[in-house]
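quick one
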Amino acid sequence: MTQAVKPMRVLAPASVREGMSQDFKAEPKSLYGPDLTGIRFKRFENPHDVGIAAAEAVAALLAEKPNASIVFPTGKTPLPFYAALRQMPGINWEKSRLFQLDEYVKPDLEGPLPYQTFAEFMQRELWQFVGGQKFYLEQYFDCPLAYESLLTQNGGPDLVILGIGGNGHIAFNEPGADPDSPARLVDLAEQTMQSNFGGVQMPGWPVQAITLGLRGILSARSILMLATGPNKQSIVRRAFDPASEPNLDCPASWLKRHPSVTVMTDFDAGL
Ligand code: GLP
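structure w/ GLP:
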């Protein structure tokens, strides 16, 4: 009996690949040149549908590769995604390897933290409900590079899921981040603190974070960006504008250099 040949690597989750072609408005090659070949835009009716499609992408990846390494984001945008994912039947998480994308650095405080860590977020939204090996960034505050090595030792990321900040940040790679930037300690941009903490910066709230760098993100076999709501439209357009080169002012623009990126939106990215 002949055995089916397994693909050597998963370039993009099957359900993400399927149904993409009708959403293409142009051949990516003609947009970005020979080494900038793979941005796919997929538009949905609403954030809920984006969440379902993203959850299906994760399910498809784990069906193809049960021990996949997946990097997960926090934020408001992925909430419908996590809701869909924890309700999705038939996913076997046991061999999966689940990583955080970024984490606030805890201030030196006595008593309970005045804010939620991203580890708590991941635990609450998904990780408490699923099996698999979970990797928490807070153990790597003193050695972020070791976290990146851990990801590499686990086969490198099969899928990195991202949101996007209003200033074009991905994870906590703020404007100015180099495309080769490693996992590291970063200062939060003013705009990020405004948006994440509702415009107030209370004593004891984070001013720094640990983030996977652009280097680690771009090392993923596939990248899935979720962007919903009218306030994300202009930054998505700016990040993926085919007329401009990737640049330091907009960290997300470096995704144009990656061979397999899917951007799921509930608006017309105009691209
Ligand atoms: C945060 C996170 C990012 C996230 C972004 C957008 O600061 N570090 O990973 O993508 O901001 O968050 P939201 O989805 O809430 O707009």
